Amino acid sequence: MNEFGNLFARNLNYFIDLNNKAQTDLSKDLKISKATVSTWCNGTRIPRMDKVDLLCGYFNIKRSDLIEDRTEKQEEKGYYLNMETQQMLETMQINPQLKILFDASSKLEPSDIDYVLHLVERLKKEGKIEK
Predict the structure, then answer these.
(1) Could you tell me which residues come within 8 angstroms of residue 76 by beta carbon, excluding any fewer than 6 positions away?
(2) HEC string of 27-78?
(3) Which residues of 78-102 are buried (b: 16+ CB within 10 A; e: fewer)?
């Protein structure tokens, strides 16, 4: 194993775990042999760039997330290592109206939150909100 192979494997395994996936999920979902995925995950081989791009699309990440040392980046992000949480926070930064909704919901009673959730579900059923 070489240093880059180990780095790639560590990053790939991180995103597999982060997304609650298994090597078999990648193999099935991306139509790549189990043996190939296994060699990527144990660092004995690294994929071609087209496969790196395929993995990036699958995990909704950048190439640099797989091929650069993520150790410092993980520490900078603190406890927002969950990709879905991180994406929600970034969306709220871009759209201040969503932040207002979040702030308001944190001050609501549980029954009021249920009311809003039912309203959103009704809007989804009526096709006014994409699912």
Answers:
(1) none
(2) HHHHCCCHHHHHHHHHCCCCCCHHHHHHHHHHHCCCHHHHHCCCHHHHHHHC
(3) eeeeeeeeeeeeeebeeeeeeeeee
35 exposed, middle or buried (CB, 10 Å; 0-12, 13-18, 19+)? exposed
Residue 15 corresponds to which tokens in the numbers above?
């995103």
- 50 token code pair: 């087209």
Write out pLDDT tens, residues 8-50. 999 999 899 888 899 999 999 999 999 999 999 999 999 999 9
3-state SS class at 92 = helix
CB count in 10 Å sphere of residue 11: 22
Residue 14, amino acid:
Y
Please tell me the CATH code under which domain 3-76 is placed: 1.10.260.40
pLDDT of 46-69, one tens digit each? 999 999 999 999 998 888 888 888
Global pTM?
0.56
State how far the Cα of 14 lies from the Cα of 47, in Å rounded to an integer: 16
